[in-house]
Design a protein that fits this description.
The protein has 231 residues and is an all-alpha fold. The protein contains eleven helices and no strands. Helix 1 packs across helix 4, helix 4 runs antiparallel to helix 5 and helix 8 packs antiparallel against helix 10. The protein starts with 26 loop residues before the first helix and ends with a helix.
Length: 231
């Protein structure tokens, strides 16, 4: 039998690890991790070392990406919430109660929140916070959006059967309809065993529900007293 020539294995450099070095996390991975931890524990409940440890980094190496924890927090909010602010800002334009406009808005909103499943809970923490930083962010980003939306609701309120004094409640109700589902996904898994709130089927049902509910709230309809007269 002829001899088989086996090439010698390359020598391992002294001190080299036998395990492959994990690639450094990308900016998106850092933001995803921070979004999840900030949503679970709040920005003040998460230390930089906790964030770094979650990604097998050292705290100084994390500072190479973001100069501070609050800078990272701001980046998480900007990435997650600004697309929503822009989306709702566009949806609030004239014709907001159009079924096609509602369909497109809901579809994009649900897709974004499903892609960032911790975002709704993070937003809830932001709105509950009484810190100056949170108030500044809300005033800068969300107050103009609320003002624009309120103007559109004012223009369509009568046709939808709402009195002017009910509009703040309507605006808050619409906000809750969209975000409460994603804020409470953990609770849904507990109280509804077998339900995966982020499955394709569940998300499709949530889209249908939101379209119907929003249209029934802001679409044209008879006022309650008129319906009673004709019944």
């Amino acid at each position: 039998m002829p001899l088989q020539v086996v090439s010698p294995s390359p020598r391992r450099k002294r001190g080299a690890s036998s395990q492959a070095v994990a690639p450094a996390p990308t900016r998106e991975v850092i933001l995803d991790t921070a979004e999840r931890l900030f949503a679970l524990h709040g920005v003040h409940g998460v230390a930089v070392r906790d964030l770094a440890r979650e990604m097998n980094l050292t705290a100084p190496s994390l500072y190479n990406h973001f100069p501070s924890k609050l800078a990272l927090y701001d980046a998480v909010l900007e990435r997650g919430l600004m697309p929503i602010v822009q989306l709702i800002g566009e949806a609030w334009q004239a014709g907001a109660q159009n079924p096609d406009r509602i369909h497109d808005t809901v579809d994009s909103m649900v897709a974004h929140l499903a892609h960032h499943p911790h975002l709704a809970r993070l937003m809830q923490r932001l709105l509950m916070s009484e810190s100056d930083r949170a108030k500044q962010w809300i005033e800068r980003r969300m107050e103009p959006l609320y003002r624009e939306g309120f103007q559109v609701l004012s223009a369509t309120a009568d046709g939808a059967g709402w009195d002017p004094e009910e509009l703040p409640h309507l605006a808050l109700g619409l906000f809750g309809l969209v975000f409460a589902y994603f804020t409470n996904t953990a609770a849904l898994r507990t109280i509804a065993p077998g339900l995966d709130p982020l499955s394709d089927r569940a998300l499709a049902l949530q889209r249908d529900f939101l379209e119907k509910a929003i249209y029934r709230l802001i679409g044209p309809q008879k006022r309650a007293n008129e319906r009673r007269k004709t019944s």
